[in-house]
Amino acid sequence: MKPDIHPQYKESAITCICGNTITTKSTRGDMHVDICSNCHPFYSGKQKIIDTAGRVERFRKKYGLTEEHTEEEESEN
To answer: 25, 12 in Cβ contact below 8 A?
Structure first.
């Protein structure tokens, strides 16, 4: 292996929007992420709809879905 061609492998902190901080090692340094294992619905068991720029509302409006309509479908199942 050639000397002095590899990047520095140093400690870095990964910070999530929810406030969770994970310490690991990386060549990039500190990172900020939108979602982590503490706030992801698959791991936490809580379902959160993250609505950015009204995408959920636009979808419901486009396909004619309302809150009452989706609740009726859920109660039938």
So the answer is: yes
69, part of any domain? no
Enclosing H/E stretch for 72: helix 67-76
More confident residue, 69 or 39: 39
Residue 17 lies in a domain: yes
Is 75 part of a structural domain of the chain? no
Q: Is the pTM of this model over 0.70?
A: no
Per the DSSP assignment, residues forming a β-bridge with 24 are: 12
Phi, psi (deg, nearest 5) at residue 36: -130, -175
By residue range, what is the domain housing residue 12? 1-47
